[in-house]
Amino acid sequence: MNFDDRALRIIDILANSFLPLVEAGLKFTVPLTLISFTLGLILALATALARISNFKPLVLLARFYVWIIRGTPLLVQLFIIFYGLPASGITLDALTAAIIGFTLNVGAYNSEVIRAAILSIPKGQWEAAYSVGMTNNQALRRVILPQAARVSVPPLFNSFISLIKDTSLAATITVTEMFQIAQRITAATYEPLWMYIEVAFVYLMFCSVLSAVQNKMEKRLERYVTK
Fold first, then answer.
1. 27-80 pLDDT, tens per residue?
2. Is-contact 153 104, C-beta < 8 A?
3. Using CA atoms, how far apart are residues 206 and 204, in angstroms rounded to an integer?
4. In whole angstroms, how large is the CA radius of gyration of the chain?
5. Are 156 and 2 in contact (CB under 8 A)?
6. What domains are defined for the chain?
7. Less crowded by CB within 10 Å, the N or C end of the chain?
8. Which residue, among 162, 137, 146, has the nearest Cα to 114 in the 3D structure?
């Protein structure tokens, strides 16, 4: 096969595989990211509130959870959930295992973001809320959390973009997201370099769109920040 024929073959492979990769991204990668991030955010908020509570057992439990997740690789966590749990009689399908793994990971890392955002709110805001008769829970819900949410948006959005890329690890537990589709096409075409470059480009497209959304959100939020 001469150079021109090989070039035409590669172009043909890339052209035919582009839409399947995007389709896999929209069908699996994006939903997996959205579901895992949403559940992880709920878990992160609960963990952050547990960390700043006065109930010692809850504080210790939250710290232990964050320590375990942050101290072990995400890939290992996915393998334990999908391949390890069946040995204990708990069998999960690949997508459910991926959602659980990513949710736990997102919850641990983002709990630190939310906790730091809550602690960054000046003590005077708490005192102002108490002065108008609010309880601790009311002050947290009506005064502190809205301000903390504004502070935490940029790092949380960065976490969301990172999760889009991390979902490629789901291919290792047989979830048919973008990277696994790329692997299947590579196995059939024997063009790993160009296929992996193409799937990297598709990930870049997704992340670029999200980065643009993040920039707009940050500019909108800046209007509410006192100079």
1. 999 999 999 999 999 999 999 999 999 899 999 999 999 999 999 999 999 999
2. no
3. 5
4. 22
5. no
6. 3-222 (1.10.3720.10)
7. C
8. 146
Q: What percent of the chain has pLDDT over 70?
A: 96
Confirm if 178 and 21 have CB atoms less than 8 A apart.
Answer: yes
Chain-centroid distance of CA 73 in Å reads: 14
Identify residue 178 by its one-letter amino acid code.
Answer: M
CB 135 within 8 A of CB 89: no
Please report, in angstroms and rounded to a whole number, the separation of the first and last CA atoms in the chain.
65
Q: Classify 35 as helix, strand or coil.
A: helix
Query: From CA 97, how far away is CA 77, in angstroms rounded?
Result: 10
Residue 100: count other Cβ atoms within 10 Å of its Cβ: 18
89: phi then psi, degrees, rounded to nearest 5:
90, 10
Angstrom distance (rounded) from CA 155 to CA 173: 28
- What 8-state DSSP symbol labels residue 18? H
DSSP state of 177: S
Residue with tokens 């320590």: 67
CB 163, CB 178: distance < 8 Å? no
Q: Write out the H or E segment, with its range, that includes residue 42.
A: helix 30-51
Q: DSSP code of 89?
A: T
8 Å CB contact between 179 and 27? no
Q: Name the nearest CA neighbour of 97 among 80, 118, 121.
A: 80
